[in-house]
């Protein structure tokens, strides 16, 4: 939200440097100018796009499969924990999911249904441009559509028109991408999160499972869900050859839409579900189609009910509990801070977020032991997507400088974040006092440390007072 509120000159500068394109920032800027920037108000655009996606999936299910499939597919999207999450987050993902579904609607209309009016191609082109400007991973949609085109027996004129549409969409997108890419062409780019993620405990089923249920549910539920998903995949493949050509084409697109993102994510070792949420509508439609093929009514209802019931614990957990909150931590700091204390946070870009919610008076600094003279705003848009690997000397100098003359440090980090900073405090004889984990599905932890001479200093102060 911060970058949507900047003056136009600064906003455009940072939007061009950002790792992801700026469509959502532009939408949010317009929304804030009309409706204000309240905590709930700024989330409404994502909620609107999330609700539109559910309605649109129902429409696609009814149009392409059956009314029964429309109900099931829209229920799947409605109950998906990740869909609930992105529909309440002040970020681009809900918009991205909707534009992806809209893009495939036009694509299937042209190449499968062959229902083309004078507005079809212009609307498809506009959708592609908006899609590419919504998120960097929208490139995957282009890849899927080109792969589908290879499979289709489309005439050469239609193929050429699609390729030209994609080319000119990418050309317009490059007006943002090239200025964004050029500053990143350096050795530090090799440490981008997409090259360094630790994927030892995850696999492709992690992505497919967590599109529907979150990892906080019991292992039995996750395993059962994985078995059902594998059954759906194998069944869809088995009956694929029995379909008429139009259904084959439609199913082929849904399969690519469902699985290509997860395959690419596994290839790069990336298993963060929200990066793949744009495949959810396609997967929901594929699952609904599979259930719709079960001839026996009782069996069909039983399988559908079982599948949806598995969602309930995950859906309720997401719907009724906080996702992410700094509140308990910032309130604790405000109550226990001293004039010479400070807040340090990893990753460094969270400094902006802490400053928004923290109402105390001590300094807040992101841990950034790298030599540059950039402002925090520019540093974030340039480097928030990279892992930092300072030299031992750079790290030591930075930590020593930013803890000097401090009697207390509140150190904040995400759960599971590999941080040498906690070890640094212990090794330098800082006294660990308290650890607080904020409530929420995304874990945030605070470590409170007192300086090595803190107790001596306070005791001396007390003695002098007496």
UniProtKB/TrEMBL annotation:
Keywords assigned by UniProt, alphabetized: Cell membrane, Glycosyltransferase, Membrane, Transferase, Transmembrane, Transmembrane helix
GO biological process, alphabetically ordered: lipopolysaccharide biosynthetic process
Primary localization: membrane
Membrane-spanning segments: 44-61, 67-86, 93-112, 132-152, 164-182, 220-239, 251-269, 303-327
Keyword Membrane in record: yes
Species, as recorded: Candidatus Magasanikbacteria bacterium RIFCSPLOWO2_12_FULL_43_12
A Pfam family recorded for this sequence: PMT_2
Topology relative to the membrane: Multi-pass membrane protein
Glycosyltransferase RgtA/B/C/D-like domain: residues covered: 20-174
Keyword Iron: no
Entry GO terms, CC: plasma membrane
Subcellular location as annotated: Cell membrane
Name used for this protein in its record: Glycosyltransferase RgtA/B/C/D-like domain-containing protein
């Amino acid at each position: 939200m911060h970058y949507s509120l900047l003056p136009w000159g600064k906003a455009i500068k940072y939007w061009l440097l950002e790792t992801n394109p700026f469509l959502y920032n532009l939408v949010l800027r317009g929304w804030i100018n009309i409706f204000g920037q309240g905590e709930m108000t700024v989330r409404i655009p994502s909620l609107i796009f999330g609700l539109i996606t559910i309605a649109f999936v129902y429409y696609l299910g009814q149009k392409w499969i059956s009314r029964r499939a429309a109900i099931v597919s829209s229920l799947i999207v409605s109950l998906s924990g990740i869909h609930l999450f992105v529909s309440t987050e002040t970020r681009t993902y809900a918009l991205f999911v909707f534009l992806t579904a809209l893009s495939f609607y036009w694509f299937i209309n042209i190449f499968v249904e062959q229902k083309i009016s004078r507005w079809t191609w212009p609307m498809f082109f506009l959708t592609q441009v908006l899609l590419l400007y919504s998120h960097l991973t929208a490139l995957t949609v282009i890849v899927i559509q080109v792969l589908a085109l290879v499979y289709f027996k489309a005439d050469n004129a239609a193929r050429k028109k699609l390729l030209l549409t994609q080319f000119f969409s990418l050309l317009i997108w490059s007006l943002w991408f090239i200025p964004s890419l050029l500053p990143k062409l350096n050795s530090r780019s090799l440490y981008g999160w997409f090259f360094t993620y630790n994927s030892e405990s995850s696999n492709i089923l992690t992505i497919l499972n967590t599109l529907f249920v979150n990892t906080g549910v019991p292992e039995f539920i996750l395993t059962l869900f994985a078995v059902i998903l594998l059954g759906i995949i194998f069944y869809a493949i088995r009956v694929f050859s029995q379909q008429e050509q139009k259904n084959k084409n439609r199913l082929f697109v849904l399969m690519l839409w469902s699985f290509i993102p997860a395959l690419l994510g596994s290839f790069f070792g990336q298993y963060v579900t929200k990066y793949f949420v744009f495949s959810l509508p396609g997967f929901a439609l594929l699952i609904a189609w599979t259930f719709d093929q079960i001839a026996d009514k009782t069996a069909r209802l039983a399988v559908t009910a079982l599948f949806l019931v598995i969602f309930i614990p995950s859906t309720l957990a997401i719907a009724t509990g906080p996702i992410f909150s700094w509140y308990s931590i910032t309130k604790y700091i405000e109550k226990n801070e001293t004039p010479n204390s400070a807040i340090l946070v990893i990753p460094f870009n969270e400094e902006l977020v802490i400053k928004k919610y923290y109402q105390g008076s001590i300094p807040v600094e992101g841990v950034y032991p790298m030599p540059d003279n950039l402002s925090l705003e520019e540093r974030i848009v340039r480097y928030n997507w990279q892992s930092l690997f300072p030299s031992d000397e750079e790290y030591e100098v930075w930590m020593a400088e930013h803890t000097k003359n401090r009697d207390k440090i509140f150190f904040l980090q995400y759960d599971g974040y590999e941080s040498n900073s906690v070890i640094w405090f212990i090794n330098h004889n800082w006294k660990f006092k308290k650890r607080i984990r904020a409530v929420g599905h995304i874990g945030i932890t605070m470590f409170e440390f007192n300086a090595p001479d803190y107790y001596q200093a306070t005791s001396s102060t007390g003695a002098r007072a007496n």
